[in-house]
Specification:
Elements (H helix, E strand, L loop, with lengths): L5 H11 L20 H8 L8 E5 L9 E2 L6 E2 L1 H12 L3 E4 L8 H7 L5 E2 L7 H4 L3 E2 L4 E10 L6 H4 L5 E5 L3 H9 L4 E5 L2 H10 L4 E5 H10 L4 E13 L2 E2 L4 H17 L1 H10 L4
Parallel strand pairs: 1-4, 1-5, 8-9, 8-10
Antiparallel strand pairs: 2-3, 5-12, 6-12, 7-10, 7-11
Helix pairs in contact: 1-10, 3-10, 3-11
Length: 277
């Protein structure tokens, strides 16, 4: 996968996008705007699981990208808002299915019939590209090694027998830990909040997690933890789509271009990360 960012991609892709899409921002509930006939015609050709809706799946325990609001029970987060914006730009409504384990998302999209896409802070990798297709990247990321503040642990000391390193199963963080901390015991968990909580309470010696998530969690919920190393893995997140649906892939790419051009992508980044990334 090329390291070219989506901003560099914008200039050439707008002309190549073969589906006319509705420009503009979504409403707060992600409802489809009443757009042009071209928008409606394009939406009808996308091979959607449910007509008029962009059906998305994610692991809902990866804040600030996605999580469940404790009061409303509804999903919230950067990716949740992104899904609503993409759907609105395509003249569709967004439909989020119940949370799934992260390592089941790619097989679910590859099999087809359940969801149209996965938007879940997922890194584009060669291994995943063997099973599904990805849009152009919508966010860059690195990995972070996180420890209990004041523990004195380092990445080197974590690579010792007896050390427990928590990760989210099926993630690139888990892959990095397995490769770079071979002497430690890597503990795969279903969701990252359990890893953060376990590190805070002393069950684990460290965790490996996506850097934006680490920063958000330490700032908002786990002030007793700290990033001991930022690992420059140069990862990029994309929206995962079935290889059998190139029309939807093209439409999503065009919608991402529109979001950059109309400022809605910058607005979402500022809302969730405090700045444009």
């Amino acid at each position: 996968m090329s390291n070219m960012t989506r901003r560099n991609f914008i200039g050439g892709s707008a002309a190549a996008a073969g589906i006319a899409l509705l420009a503009g921002c979504s409403s707060s509930d992600g409802a489809a705007d009443e757009g042009s006939a071209a928008t409606t015609e394009a939406a009808d050709d996308l091979g959607l699981v449910e007509e008029g809706k962009l059906t998305c799946i994610a692991n809902m325990y990866f804040p600030p990208f996605e999580s469940m609001d404790e009061e409303t029970g509804e999903p919230v987060g950067f990716d949740i808002d992104l899904g609503a914006e993409l759907a609105a730009h395509m003249g569709l409504e967004v439909n989020w299915l119940p949370s799934m384990q992260f390592d089941t998302l790619v097989p679910t999209i590859a099999t087809g019939g359940t969801a149209d896409c996965t938007i879940t802070g997922m890194t584009i990798t060669d291994e995943r590209l063997e099973e599904i297709a990805f849009t152009e990247p919508y966010l860059d990321s690195n990995q972070a090694v996180v420890i209990k503040a004041g523990s004195g642990e380092t990445t080197e000391s974590l690579n010792e027998e007896g050390k427990q390193i928590a990760v989210q199963a099926g993630t690139t963080g888990a892959d990095w830990a397995e490769e770079n901390l071979p002497n430690a015991t890597v503990v795969p968990l279903d969701e990252i909040i359990s890893a953060m909580t376990g590190l805070s309470t002393g069950s684990y010696d460290g965790i490996v997690i996506d850097l934006p998530v680490a920063r958000y969690q330490i700032t908002n919920s786990f002030s007793d933890l700290e990033v001991v190393e930022e690992v420059p893995t140069g990862e990029q997140y994309g929206v995962g789509v079935s290889k059998d649906n190139p029309a939807l892939l093209e439409a999503l790419d065009a919608a991402l271009v529109e979001m950059d051009e109309d400022g809605s992508m910058a607005e979402l980044q500022t809302k969730w990360f405090g700045q444009e990334l």
